[in-house]
Amino acid sequence: MVHPLRDKAAVSGIGETAYTRGTTKSGLALQLEASLKALDDAGIDPRDVDGVIPYFPGGAIAEDFIANLGLKDLTLSAFIPMGGATCVAAIQMAAMAVTTGVCKHVLISVGRTGYSGSRVSTRLQQFPVFAQAAEFEAPIGMFAPAQLYAQGARRHMELYGTTARQLAEVAVVTRQHAILNGNVVMNKPLTVEDHHASRMISDPFRLFDCSLESDGGAAVIVSATDRAKDLRKPLVTIAGVAEGHPDSPASIAQRPDILEFGLVKSAPRAYAMAGVGPKDIDVAEIYDCFTFTVIRQLEILGFCKTGEGGPFVMDGRIALGGELPINTHGGLLSQGHVVGLNHVIELTRQLRGEAGKAQVKKAETGLVTGYGDMGDGSIAILRRAA
Amino acid sequence: MSQAPIPVAPAPERPLPTPTRESQPYWDGMREGRFLLQYCSSCGKVRHYPRPVCPHCFSMESEFKEAPLGGTLHAWTVCHHPFNFFFKASAPYIVALVDMDAGVRVNAQLHGIPEGELKIGRRVKLGFEPVNKEVTLPVFVAE
Fold it and tell me: A137 lies in a domain?
């Protein structure tokens, strides 16, 4: 049976601000600026938005959108507190809302002053799921994701022989792609030597294994396919979408397998909903909070077997022109950290044929993931309408 | 006109656990130098971190019992960047994730074993490190 959500909703509008380090704008202003761009991209009157899912914690609540954009009748407001998995999980909620007729157009937005405002260790205190880590792990000197996820990376290296050279490859290729984009924080070439010479943060993660602290806003509009096909831009449908939560969701330490993320559960559901498999994916935007997180997700997504993610990323395979181009915009590692909503925007551009110098030829079906909190995993498979 | 004294930034405070009603016995045990874990009174299975319901049989009855201190290394990281400035003075430090013989995992700093000698499966032992009158934290040392 074809899943009732398959291709019934579409990404109808995308918008983003400049990605910078240093802004005088508030998180709310960044979200509204990106939202207005996304609405213009779609050709939708801002007042017709009737669903809003702002990033939490991000300085905006749905009511701010009524006050600023004059929404006439908001029928859905929600937060999805899944850290980096939030944005792609929001696509699922938005697709459900527009497919059932609860909403016409759902706005998903992120605005972040991650450089000029509060930094990562402050923001984490606001995440409900970090309460357990705050009690049991912060006192022993371990609280930031770079520390909490490093143990999994180290275990993968010990078990499978994954190397720092392979982690570096993800950073280097992502930077090459960023330079083609233009709207990025990091616009100078990065070499493997630069990566290896960067300071150690939490072994095995060096500075250039870690995503950016940056300022910026991004927004995406989800509409029912029947409505989106009459809007301004080429139709990109949501073929499959899913969120997943790992066992022991608030504590990586207590998880039976510390290398199992929510994506282990959500990826098979999204593939089944879309009726496609890894071989059908032309381009993938993989949540890259850390280089290793990309390598492990490629395994979980079925592009290679567990333990083979390190060799998989080598030899140009994940670069433009390779077998599976990933993070063609520069990702969180080099473009900017808007919690992965920039990944959704880039995938939409690729499938519309709007990706400029980074355009993947004949990109018809693509995949985007979110990864966050202690390993929540979301995934969306988008495709260009035939 | 005399200059105002230059203010001295207070020393950063160590982040300390805030025990919950569920976890209080665990921290009381730590303070007494005992490794107490929560066992289901109905099915007998151990669970960590402490929580109200047994996820195996859904019983809400439980008891804290002393557990063995040995375990094997599951993974580790060496923390160089002090995300909390309290830890700046002691960085780099090793945080070890250990498969306790009791059947749970514990994350704690590892003392006395050089980074180059770490490998998965290496035996270690849980010890106790008092940080003030109220709070004692687990620490791993060579068995």
Answer: no
Average pLDDT of the residues in A186-210: 98
- Chains A and B form CB pairs within 8 A to the count of 103
Residues in B touching A120 (Cβ below 8 Å):
83
What is the C-alpha to C-alpha distance for residues B82 and A141, in angstroms, rounded to an integer? 8
Number of domains in chain A: 1
Q: Please give the class, per CATH, of domain B68-143.
A: mainly beta
Nearest neighbour of A141 by CB, restricted to B48, B95, B119: B95
Closest to A351 measured CA to CA, from A211, A216, A235, A186:
A235
Q: Which of B17, B90, B120 sits opposite A135 (nearest CB)?
A: B17
Nearest partner of A17 among A4, A39, A32, judged by Cα: A32
Answer yes or no: do A158 and B84 touch at CB < 8 A.
no
Q: What is the band of A124 on the pLDDT scale with cuts at 50, 70, 90?
A: confident
Do A202 and B81 make contact, defined as CB atoms within 8 angstroms?
yes
Q: Is residue A169 part of a domain?
A: no
A200 contacts B77? CB cut-off 8 A: no
Q: How far apart are CA A101 and CA A231, in angstroms?
A: 18
pLDDT number for residue A121: 67
* Predicted complex ipTM: 0.93
Question: Chain A contacts of B97, Cβ < 8 Å?
Answer: 151, 253, 258
Domain coordinates in residue numbering, chain B: 21-67, 68-143
Enter the DSSP assignment of A316.
T
What residues have CB less than 8 Å from A21, skipping those under 6 apart?
Answer: A115, A116, A185, A212, A213, A214, A215
Which residues constitute the domain of residue A72? 9-117+211-384
Query: Does the residue A79 lie in any domain?
Result: yes
CATH number at residue A258: 3.40.47.10
- Is residue A3 a part of any domain in this protein? no
Rounded average pLDDT over A358-379: 96
Rounded average pLDDT over B21-34:
97
